[in-house]
Amino acid sequence: MTSALGKDLLALEPLSSEQIRLILDTAEPFKEISERSIKKVPTLRGSTIVNLFFEASTRTRISFEFAEKRLSADTVNVASSGSSVSKGETLVDTARNLEAMRIDMVVIRHGASGAAQFLAERIESNVINAGDGTHEHPTQGLLDLLTLRDHFHRLDGLKVCICGDVLHSRVARSNIWGLKKMGAEVAVCGPRSLLPNAIDELGVTVFSRIEDAIQWADALNVLRLQLERMQGGYIPSLREYNRVFGVTSERLARAPKDVLILHPGPMNRGVEIDSDVADGPHSVILNQVTNGVAIRMAVLYLLSGGRPELAEAAKGGGGR
Amino acid sequence: MTDRQTTVLDARAMDRALRRMADEIVELNEGTDGLIIVGIQRRGVQLAARIVGSIRDREGVEVPSGALDITLYRDDLQTVGPRPVVGPTNLPWAIDGKHVVIVDDVLYTGRTIRAALDELADFGRPRRIALAVLIDRGGRELPIQPDVVGKTVEIGRTQRVDVLVSELDGRDAVVIAAKTSA
Amino acid sequence: MTPRNDAAPSILLRGGRLIDPSQGLDETGDLLITGGVVEAHGRLGEVRRDGAAQPEIVDVRGRVVSPGFIDVHCHLREPGREEVETIATGSRAAAVGGFTAVCAMPNTDPVTDNQAAVGFIIRQAQRAGGAKVYPIGAISMGQQGQTLAEFGEMVGAGAVAVSDDGRPVASAQLMRTALEYARTFGIPVADHCEDPTLALGGAMNEGVMSARLGLRGIPAEAEEIMAIRDILLARLTGGHIHLCHMSTKGSVELIRWGKERGINVTAEVCPHHLSLTEAAVEGYDTNAKMNPPLRTAADVAALQEAVKDGTIDVIATDHAPHHYDEKEREFADAPNGIVGLETALAVNLTWLVHGGSIGLPLLIERMSCAPARLFHLPGGTLRAGSPADVTVFDPDASWTVDPAKFRSKGRNSPYAGQTLRGTVAMTLVDGRVIHRA
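Above: the input entities. Below: the C-alpha cells describing the complete assembly.
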C-alpha cells in the first residue's frame, strides 16, 4: 500500500494540486509541535531514516533532521563528499547497501539530476528528494508555497517572480511546478545567460529587467547566485549582477505595493539581495526556515507507515 | 446504505446528559479552580465547549479549555495507510499542577485515551487527569475507565456508536448503527 | 572482379524478392552463388549452374534478397575494452543484424592511429568469421587534435577512411589539412560534428525537456556550426567530408546547401535519430543517452525526409556497446551511446518503410549500396562477379527486442521490450553463410 503521495517524494512536477494541498494542510498542525516545550511526538518511533547527503547542505540537512527527530525517528547521517563519479562507491551500490540494512526512509541530496529517482527505483524504502542536481528540491518548493499561503491566505492568482540563476536552480523548478499547479502566476527574472533557453515553454513569463518584475509581482523568490557562476562565465561580475539584478530597497520602494521577499538561503548579502531587504519588514525568509521543518514533518508523516499486512491485525483499535 | 439506526440520545437528552456531566466535573474538582477542560479531536472538542458553556451558566466562571489531536500518538500508525488527517492541537494553558479533564465522545477500546495521556504528558505534569465521555460502550482493550459518563450502552462489536453534533453534523444526537465493512 | 574461391560452397537462393538498387533490380527470382561470388541471378527457375556440383538450394520465398548491409560507423572497442566488445563479438553481432561489413572507428585504447594498429584489427577480423571489418584510422595522433596520423601507412594496411570520431576535430586548420591530405589516398574524412565549448557538460538535447529535467543541454547549433565549418572546408580543399551521425533539421539544411553547390559532402544518420526523440530521456533513462543526443520530433521528420531525398546518403549504426553497470548510474555521469547492429534493420523497417516514408529499395541503397560507393568498399551490389555479400531478410516479421539475446556484449538498447518488424534470415559473406536464423 502506498500513501496518498505514492512511495516517494521526488519532484513536484508529477504531483496533483490535491496532493500538494494535502501536504500544505498536513503541515499546519505540525507547526504547533515545534512550539511545544517538548518538541516531539512518537509518530515515527522505531522508523529508521538515513539522510544521505552527497552534497554539503547544512540548512536542508538540519531541517530534515529536526523534522525526523521531532517525529521520534531514528536517524543516521551519511555525508559523502564529492560526486560519485570515478571515485568511491557507485550510487547503485549505495542503494543496495541501504536496502540490506532494512531502513524505512532515505532523504537524498545529490549533485546529479535524477539521482533521487534512480535511488527510488532501486530500493523499497521511501525516498525523499532533498535536492537532485539542477532538477528539483520539492520540500523547498513546498515550504515556499506554505510561506506564501500563510501570508496571502491563498495561492490562486498570486503573482510570484523567481529571480536569479534559474538555469542551475532546483528550487526554481520546484517553485514553478508547485506554484503553477496551485493556480499562481509565475514569472522568472534574471540575465538570459542564467535562464534555460526554453523556459517560456514551461508556462512562465520572462522579465529581463528586475524593475519590471518588481512592478508585476506580489512576491519575489530571490535565488542564491552561486559564486562559481561567475567563474563559469555566465555573468561578468558580482558587482554588476547586484547593480542590474539585485533586489534592493530602492527598487522595492518604487513598487506600487508591498512585495513579499523570499529567499531559499544561504544568502549572498549585497549580491542578489541587499541586507536591508533581507532583514526588512516584508522579508519572510525566517518564516521559510520555520515552515521548512513543518513541511518536512508533514512529508515524512504522509509517506511513512501503511504496512498493509499489519493493518488487519490492528483493526478496531481506532474504532468507536 | 440503509443501515438500521437506533437513536440512543436525542438532542434534548444529549443536552441534559452534558449538563449533568458538567455538574459532575465541578463536583469532582470541588469547584472550578485549577480546572482545564480538553476536548479530543474531533467531536470531543465540541462536547468540551458545551461543558464549558454549562459551567459558565451554572458557576459564572470561564473554565480554560483546549483541543487535543491524538493522531500522531496513535499506536497503529505503522499499520494504517494512507495516513489519517491530522487536526489542530491547541493547548495554550500551562497544565502543570492543574486538574485536566479529557472530554471525548465515545469510550471504546481506550486506545485514544492512552494516546491522549501520552500527549498530555508532553505538555506538562497535571496534578490529576480525569476522563469524561458522553458514551461508554464497553469493549476496553486497555485498563482505562471514565470518571464521568453521559450514558452507558451495551452493544456488540458489529455495531458502532455515532455522536452527532450540530456544529459538524447539523444536529445533536447519539445513534447506533451497524458497522459498514469499509 | 573479385577472385573466385572455388572452395566456397555453391548456394542457390530460390524464389526471393531480389532488390539491388545498384542495378535497378527489383524482381522475384533466384540468386546463384558459386566460388564466393555472385554467379548469376534471374527469373524463378531460370538460373542454372553449368556442370560441376549441385548447389545447396535455399528456399527464400517471401523474403528479400539484397546486397549485404554495410555499417560505416561502429565501435568494436578492441583493443582496450574487450570486456565491453571485441572484434569477434562485434562482427558476429553485425552478421546477426544482416551486416556483411562494418567500419570500426579508431577510438580504441590505444587509438588506431598507425599501420600496426590497423593491421591488428584486420587480423582479428579474419579470425572472427563474422562480418568483414574495415578499420577507420584516426585523423590525429592519439585523437589529440594536434598532428596528423599517417594516413598513407594506415591506408596501405587496410584503413578505408579517417576519423577522430568520439571527439570533434576542434581545430579548423587541422581539419583543412586532413581533407587536403586525404585526397592523395582518395579516402573520406569522417567528422563527429560538435563544437566542444557549446556541448561542454551536455547530457541531452537542449530544449524544454532539458529545462524540465535539469540536465545540461547540447544545442542543435553545437552540431550545425561544425557541420557548416566542415562543408566550407570541403569546398576550400576539394576533399571528401563525411559528416557522421547527423541529428538536426539544421544540419540537413546545411548539407543540402553544400550538395546544391557541388561540394563533396556526404552524410550519415543513425537509426535512433530516425526513430526516437528526446522524450525517451524521461525518467533519466541512460539507454536514451547518446552523443549527438536524441532531438525533437521536427528533427526526426527532417532526417527522415533527408534519407528519402538523398541529402543524407547513408544510415549507419554508431553501435556503441557499454558494460551494463556503466549505464546503471546517474544520467549525467553515464556514458554516451547504444548498441545498434542487431536492431538497425528492424528499426529502419519499422519507422521508415512500414512508417511509409521510404520503400525497400531506397532503404537498401542507404544501408548497402551508398556505403560501399562512398567508402570505396567491395559489396553493395548483386552484379555477377561481385563478392557474394548478401543479406536475406523478412521485412514484415515481428519480434520483441530482448537485449539478453544480443550477440554483442552490449545490452544498452533503448528499444528493449519494443516490438519491431523485420528479421534477418541469412547473412552471407563471400558466399559463406555467417548467420542463419
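Note for the figure: Chain A touches chain C through 27 residues (CB under 8 Å).
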